[in-house]
C-alpha cells in the first residue's frame, strides 16, 4: 500500500479501526475521524512506540497467574488485532469471559456503544 499523503494515512487508519460494513452505513464518520485526528494528532514517535510494544510484548506465560475476573470484548471483524488473539487470551486467563460484538471492527465502542456499555455494566454489576 502506497500512502500518498497524511490524509491517505488517516483514511487508512479509519479502515483499520472500523469495519467496512460500519463505514458503508456511516459515510459521515470519515470527516469526523479526520477532524479528530487533526485536532489531536498522534505523534509519530508515540505511534512507533505503540507498534514496537505490540510487536515485542510477551506475557503469555504469566497470564494464567491472573485470577481476577476479566472481561474480554472484541469485534469479530477486527482487521487490526485478529480475533484469534482474543481467543488466545481467553484460553490463558483462568477467569476470563469473552464477548464478541458481531460485525464490529477494532474500534467496537464506536460501532456498538450501547452493546459495549451493556456488556461492561453487566460484568461490573455481577
Q: What pattern of helices and strands is seen along the backbone?
A: HHHHEHEHH
Determine the fraction of residues in helical runs and give it as a percent range.
40-55%
- Intertermini distance: 46 Å
Q: Tell me about the biggest sheet?
A: 2 strands, parallel
How big a fraction of the residues is strand? 5-15%
Overall structural class, as computed from helix and strand content, comes to mainly alpha
Q: Counting H and I runs of at least 4 residues, what is the number of helices?
A: 7
- Round the mean pLDDT to the nearest integer and report it: 92
Poorly predicted parts: none
Order of adjacent strands in the largest pleated sheet: 1-2
Task: Tell me about this structure.
The protein is mainly α and 126 residues long. The chain is 55% helix and 10% strand. The protein is built from 7 helices and 2 strands, in the order ααααβαβαα. The protein has helices spanning 6-17, 20-25, 29-39, 44-56, 83-92, 108-111, 113-125; strands at residues 70-75, 96-101. Strands 1-2 form a two-stranded parallel ribbon. Helix 1 (6-17) crosses helix 3. The longest helix is centred in the middle third of the chain and has 13 residues, at 44-56. The radius of gyration is 17 Å and the shape is globular. It starts with 5 loop residues before the first helix and ends with a helix. The model has no long low-confidence stretch (mean pLDDT 92).
Amino acid at each position: 500500500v502506497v500512502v500518498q499523503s497524511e490524509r491517505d494515512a488517516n483514511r487508512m487508519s479509519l479502515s483499520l479501526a472500523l469495519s467496512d460494513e460500519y463505514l458503508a452505513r456511516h459515510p459521515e464518520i470519515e470527516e469526523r475521524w479526520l477532524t479528530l485526528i487533526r485536532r489531536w494528532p498522534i505523534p509519530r514517535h508515540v505511534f512507533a512506540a505503540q507498534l514496537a510494544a505490540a510487536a515485542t510484548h510477551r506475557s503469555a506465560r504469566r497470564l494464567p497467574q491472573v485470577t481476577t475476573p476479566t472481561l474480554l470484548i472484541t469485534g469479530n471483524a477486527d482487521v487490526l488485532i485478529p480475533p484469534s488473539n482474543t481467543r488466545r487470551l481467553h484460553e490463558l486467563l483462568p477467569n476470563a469471559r469473552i464477548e464478541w460484538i458481531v460485525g464490529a471492527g477494532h474500534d467496537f465502542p464506536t460501532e456498538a456503544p450501547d452493546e459495549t456499555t451493556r456488556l461492561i455494566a453487566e460484568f461490573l454489576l455481577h
